[in-house]
Amino acid sequence: MTATIDKTDGSARNLQEAVETVESHLHPRPSWVVADHPMPTGREEIWRFTPVKRIQGLLDGTPSDAHLVWEETLPAGVTSRAITEIEARGISAEEPVDRVSALAAELSPGARLIDVPAEAELADPVSIVLRGQRELVWGHIVVRVGAHARATVVVRHEGSATYGAKLDLVAGDGAVVNFVTIQDWADDTVHGGQTSVLVGRDAEVRTVTVSLGGSLVRLTETSRFAGPGGSLEQFGLYFVDAGQHIEHRLFVDHNAPQTHSKVDYRGALQGKGAHSVWVGDVLIRKVAEQISTYEANKNLVLTDGCRADSVPNLEIQTGQIEGAGHSSTTGRFDDEQLFYLQSRGIDAREAKRLVVHGFFATIIAKIGVPELEGRLMTAIEAELAKSVSA
Amino acid sequence: MALNQGLVVSGLHVTVETEAGTKEILKGVDLTVRPGEIHAIMGPNGSGKSTLAYSIAGHPKYTITSGSVTLDGVELTTLSVDARARAGMFLAMQYPVEVPGVSVANFLRTAKTALTGEAPKVRTWIKEVNESLARLDLEHEFSARSVNEGFSGGEKKRHEIVQLELLNPKFAVLDETDSGLDIDALRIVSEGVNRYASQGDRGVLLITHYTRILRYINPDFVHVFVDGHIVEEGGRELADELEASGYEKYTKVATGK
User: Where do the DSSP E strands lie in chain B?
Assistant: First the structure.
């Protein structure tokens, strides 16, 4: 149900009120208060795809002071420091939209702030590696990129953990940010939480979210704009193996005019019980005139016994836009593609490898860190070797 | 004797599954193309010409119910699609397929490696690729594009001929390579086919609906293909006759009207 109060007298003031009260029907009101996010039963719209039992460790709110092992590589000028949770809340991109992220903020033993100063032009990426050591961990990280700065930030998750996370990216006005997060967990990891992006006026933000490992990964990714003229590109890549649950829930809030968003998430699934979920919600508010948005999700099902849920949603409150669209496809290998490649002497296994390579290559090329791109392609080849045979 | 007999198709019957059930498309095709020869197969729409091309290459949609196809004595019909290619068969497709994210360069190198069993030498290979692209009037940058993705009709066909040149198979089936080409592209593509054929020991089966490509490529034999089999054979004068009077004479015979 969309709570839309539509004033018809057209006065600017009333229109503004209407804008403020519009809510996307799939999204609960963001709140730092844990009690505002009751324990899910699994029947709620935002939980219905998730095996709630398997993520219980991130729902019941058991406190923990444990940390992930933190390794950072900071280019000159970039700072990293511990901040209080109160301070973190004051500068975050968005309040928690679900119980896991609310608990992460509540229970995190302090927060971490990475600061890229205004007008910095970083030649090398900011690199953060977070390694789990078989513990329950709550974490809150804020990455702040100052006005007109240019930065690539890579956050890489490894090891075993039960990790509830809140991760915020605040891109200042005119900033150009490439924000890469990689879930390369060990097989037993459960990782849930929220990554939120605030796109400054005229800023250009690209996010690349790569989820390969873990038993269960459930990430809610919300984005909104701090002013007009911002541009957001979000790319995603996931490779889901037997028994794995990987869920990406995106929400792009076009809350400012002349803003642009593009979402392209691609996944491959193989093995019994492999389950991917992609939800792509876009809300175009009344104020968001002359915006454009397009979101796409593609799933390549490599074996029997997999399940790919893909749900794009568009909620449009104004007709004064440049364009809005979405697409979702889920399928097996295209016989015609394989025939074409094989007719040139390439055997079935190599042909399938080429097709998957091509499927992901365009996403990987967006990362912009050559060494990382190479490593990811190698990781995908290794995943592929498990299922693709002649 | 078996080594150089070229392509021999004998008694080939092929069916395809349709919503209305199994349908026989090829009803006994007999054809021999010796090395060094160019044969044209001409026929009206729906006669089964493309089915013949796809069946020779091994497309999974078509079922060979009887008959055989051999290339230099090697039976192709029992081989996988890629093994047929490695046996020397090449099909230039009427509708080349898009493979997003796979560059032309990667595709060509992978195919060459698969066919010869070893990766081509980087330096000479890139030179070869660029020279072939240039002969087909394509820019060097073409090799960085995804295979067939966003190609114009003419670019797709020229890319097929680039593959023909670089992979240099024993035998090439060209399925309506002339369709959708403007006159300049038709000339460029035809020159590519002629260069390939002029090696002297390669065979070409040129499948076409129209006669205009035969102004540029001179066939040694022309076969008229109607209702799933060959109904008339002759030299290039047969093509000239078809140009003048069309297929009507043969379609009437085939359907018994």
Answer: 7-18, 21-33, 38-42, 62-71, 74-75, 89-92, 99-103, 146-147, 171-175, 203-208, 221-226, 229-234
